[in-house]
From TrEMBL:
Residues 2-70 form the HTH gntR-type domain. Its cofactor is pyridoxal 5'-phosphate. CDD domains: AAT_like, WHTH_GntR. It comes from the Bacteria. This is PLP-dependent aminotransferase family protein. Coiled coil: none annotated. Transmembrane segments: none annotated. In the C-terminal section; belongs to the class-I pyridoxal-phosphate-dependent aminotransferase family. GO terms for molecular function: transaminase activity. It comes from Cohnella hashimotonis.
Length: 457
């Protein structure tokens, strides 16, 4: 979404929510808005269409666009919140028309498969599409090594519980890391070891010691746009991980859940650094498309294929054919590449805004890991502050933030981190949200000796 179009949408949406234009009122014509915003007619048309998909306005043939009725607006007329917590795309991020077209076509093309139990490994035609997609990321494998899962969570859960060819049993995870991985390990009562990851990277001496001495079955890592830090490993660091994995016969589960949002064309996965014999490359489609599709895909070493086939079959017999069909058509039609490019640009702009606003409004000591661009996550460190109490104060002011405590193992030291997500905040909301955080922190530094804010430790 272009900056100008986003500005138009934000202004009109704010006018509606703030009551400056009322339900039933006719909006200015496309030509009038084009002149008012100094932009093209197509920009206004696209903005109106987006607002219509959000059910804020509707069109009357040969008449124009109008604000929807009061009843439909009630949820939106309530206090608007700034959401730094959600890791799911906004409903308006994907064209519902495009999705329905793909769904209808999938029902027609895969009608026979809907009435059977297809290959648990995934539709062959979709796996062939995945081969091409993975090749673009320098992950070279055949369709026989590709698995389609009911979401990345299913893939992680299966891998946590199944035996690996190295015969080892312990699992090493970065700290912090994706909370869903930790929950799966806990549910299966797996032996898990944590290794600290900071904005500066990882302790390589500790990593090699774990690989050498602690019977590590696999090391789970998020090399690109880490959750929750937002940071990425350098090419040298990826090469080092791949080398250590082969040296000590440790597998790497590489969670590349945001590969589509990469802005550096030379940023390759660990798999590309000679790690194909020991790296499982996992891709999710929940962030770039719809979480409800429940789709992920992985390229795995040949030695793991038979065991993973067995465990996948016993888990669900097969992943939803309709979901697989929708994704395949979305990819074949070119919609996927176009949509991913649009999302990459939008989130990149939001991350740049977050960095700029945070650098301007927050103390430097709090700027823990905020990428210059790319990804959807950043982390703010608040030493000496009760983040739970701060989160409550911010919530009262309409700003939702997420404490990162659940992304650590229970016994691992926890810094006071807030994970900041850009998925459901636009640039205006980011500015306002960071300003609100800054105000609450300034409020905590009042010089009145009779007042001690409750969220300072």
């Amino acid at each position: 979404m272009t900056n100008k179009k986003q500005a138009v949408i934000s202004r009109i949406r704010s006018d509606i929510v703030d009551g400056l234009v009322i339900p039933g009122q006719k909006l200015p014509s496309i030509r009038e808005q084009s002149q008012a915003f100094s932009c093209s007619l197509n920009t206004i048309i696209s903005a109106y269409q987006e607002l219509e998909r959000e059910h804020l306005i509707y069109s009357r043939p040969k008449s124009g666009y109008y604000v929807v009725a009061q009843e439909a607006l009630l949820p939106l007329l309530q206090k608007q919140r700034i959401d730094f917590t959600s890791a799911a795309p906004a409903p308006s991020s994907l064209s519902q028309t495009d999705f329905r077209q793909c769904l209808n076509k999938a029902m027609a093309l895969f009608e026979d498969s809907i009435f059977t139990y297809p290959d648990p490994q995934g539709l062959l035609s979709l796996r062939q599409e995945m081969v091409q997609l993975f090749h673009k990321q320098q992950v070279f494998s055949s369709e026989r090594q590709i698995f389609v899962f009911s979401g990345a969570q299913q893939a992680l859960h299966l891998l946590n519980g199944m035996p690996f060819p190295n015969g080892k049993t312990n699992i090493l995870v970065e700290q912090p890391t994706y909370w869903g991985m930790l929950e799966s390990l806990k549910a299966q009562n797996q032996t898990v070891i944590g290794i600290e990851r900071t904005p500066e990277g990882i302790d390589w001496t500790a990593l090699e010691r774990h690989f050498q001495s602690n019977m590590i079955k696999f090391f789970y890592t998020i090399p690109r746009f880490h959750n929750p830090l937002g940071t990425s490993y350098t090419p040298k660091e990826k090469q080092r991980i791949a080398d250590l994995a082969q040296k000590y016969d440790v597998y790497i589960v590489e969670d590349d859940y945001l590969a589509d949002f990469e802005t550096d064309s030379k940023a390759d996965p660990i798999w590309a650094y000679g790690g194909s014999s020991h790296v499982l490359y996992l891709r999710s489609f929940s962030k770039v498309m719809l979480p409800g599709l429940r789709l992920a895909a992985a390229a795995v070493p040949k030695t793991l294929v038979p065991s993973l086939q067995q465990h996948k079959r016993t888990a669900d017999l097969s992943t939803s054919v309709l979901s697989q069909g929708v994704l395949e058509i979305f990819m074949q039609s070119g919609m996927y590449a176009h949509h991913a490019k649009r999302m990459r640009a939008m989130y990149g702009q939001r991350m740049r805004k977050l960095k700029e606003a945070s650098s301007r409004l927050l103390p430097k000591a709090f700027l823990y890991s905020i990428p210059s661009s790319g990804g959807i996550f950043a982390a703010i460190n608040l030493p000496g502050i009760h983040t739970e109490e701060l989160a409550k104060r911010l919530s009262e002011r309409g700003v939702d933030v997420l404490r990162a405590d659940q992304q650590f193992l229970p016994t691992f030291p926890k810094p006071n981190l807030l994970r900041m997500s850009m998925m459901r905040t636009d640039e205006q909301e980011i500015e306002k949200g960071i300003q609100t955080i800054a105000e609450e922190l300034d409020h905590a530094k009042l010089t009145d000796n009779d007042y001690t804010p409750s969220f300072w430790i």
